[in-house]
């Protein structure tokens, strides 16, 4: 009986799952990296949101920023009718890899479309993301952000997304990690076309300023550790805990005025040298010289986690992180509870970091393994001013100045035309014991 039910369930699942297209075979660019000193032959996969989504022929299920009402009359039918296509990584998306190095291009003019930015995940094998347990470990990589102007963000971070892309838990998500499914982050993004394999078509609103994106009823929330958000002008590393990792609806998503009522700490606690008082530390030809590749070391101290440290290595020289130098914050060079609590008071920012459990809450959240994300993006919401400029733009409060970029910089339409050729390079990824990877 149980077997019969099992068979019926899987037949049903088979019938309604999102399917895999056969126009382009999926061939993941390889990327080698080091785990505990051992070379790993990994690869990367582009997120499902960037992929062509069409019916059993070549008719679009999603075009520009709108869903086909014929093919997607309801979420289940949409998953049933639609096929997620394989990716031409270099031709369509401007992504190339060689050995231990990965380059993401910004604007790529393909034969059918113009692609803007990308988001990729590290795979352990064809069908499974590589996963990391960060506590008491060290993560190191080399970033080249010399070709990233104001307004762009070459990001490397971890999120608590499922290792199989959600496939085992949600039969609708059949393409799984092999097709880059299952993304979530601490902003609880509403722009995901599929969440738990279900099309996010309900209440879908095409974006007013992004011809490729929109927002559906559901968001998808999970804990996020931003190791590196950067361009040539500014950089930050940031902790964002969520009280759970789940699809959200309504208040849980923490949208708009309810920003602090959701399940994630959207503001996070960040360390940005410029923001915390050192304007001569990171940038072109500065102490950490962003006109050249720089090796970035991040240490997760303790279990439970109590501190997240940063060290840079460049030109064979180890460069200790800058110390904070603003009034109201003790001079420190790492993220701890004390630093976060002091900087929230000094800036007058809401302390959602503490409200969501502080370091111990984040430490608990990191019991869940996390997946490595590498991306290049421009910002249709805030022009990346929160990273590299003054934000809020009319504020002179402590902490409002985050980098040297003009408050008028970073408009997507401007950067997409003026800096179409921008790109970021990530290489030499290493993970292991503290002080073993640099
Ligand atoms: C910035 O950091 C450098 C290197 O750590 C240090 O020598 C310098 O004094 C710092 N400047 C400020 C304003 O804190
Ligand atoms: C803080 O900045 C001042 C100059 O603005 C500098 O003299 C001092 O060395 C800095 N302190 C630290 C700890 O970097
Ligand atoms: C981008 O690169 C291409 C090829 O290298 C070149 O032809 C084009 O002029 C460049 N565009 C810009 C805006 O720099």
From TrEMBL:
GO biological process terms, semicolon-separated: cellulose catabolic process
Catalytically driven reaction(s): Hydrolysis of (1->4)-beta-D-glucosidic linkages in cellulose and cellotetraose, releasing cellobiose from the non-reducing ends of the chains
EC top class named in words: hydrolase
Entry EC no(s): 3.2.1.91
InterPro entries: ConA-like_dom_sf, Glyco_hydro_7, Glyco_hydro_7_sf
Record key words, sorted: Carbohydrate metabolism, Cellulose degradation, Glycosidase, Hydrolase, Polysaccharide degradation, Signal
SUPFAM superfamilies from the UniProt entry: Concanavalin A-like lectins/glucanases
Signal peptide: 1-17
Superkingdom field: Eukaryota
GO molecular function, one term: cellulose 1,4-beta-cellobiosidase activity
Family: Belongs to the glycosyl hydrolase 7 (cellulase C) family.
Protein's recorded name: cellulose 1,4-beta-cellobiosidase (non-reducing end)
Native source species: uncultured symbiotic protist of Reticulitermes speratus
